[in-house]
Description:
Blueprint: H1 2-19, H2 33-46, H3 50-70, H4 76-97, H5 102-131
Helix pairs in contact: 3-4
Amino acid sequence: MKNLALAFGLLLTVPTIMIGQEATAPIEIQEEPKVSKRLTRMTETLQLTPTQVDQVRSIHKNYKPHLENARIIEDKAKKKEAIFALKNAELQEVKQILSPEQLPLLEEHLAKQKAVKVRGGARKAAETQDAE
């Protein structure tokens, strides 16, 4: 009988507590600014569809923990090799979801990025020589 009274009391109390609660929207997980910026740039450059954007985001999420693990490798050569292999595999997966029209745009984009990195490296080397 006591259990029945306790259950009845809880039954009356729970709806009263719930009335004061407001429904909240599901919490969205925020992407890192660097990832978001890269995805935006890819979307604009390659004219990705919303489905492709979701697929690229999913591919990145799959590789992120592996890249984080690779970044903590002590040996610099092994770390560089592991990161290169993972990024290359990620890129190959992204290429699989692109249309034939988007692939040349991606190659052009990657070539521009590589040129910027090379120029940046050459500039840093020149600055180092000037400082000496």
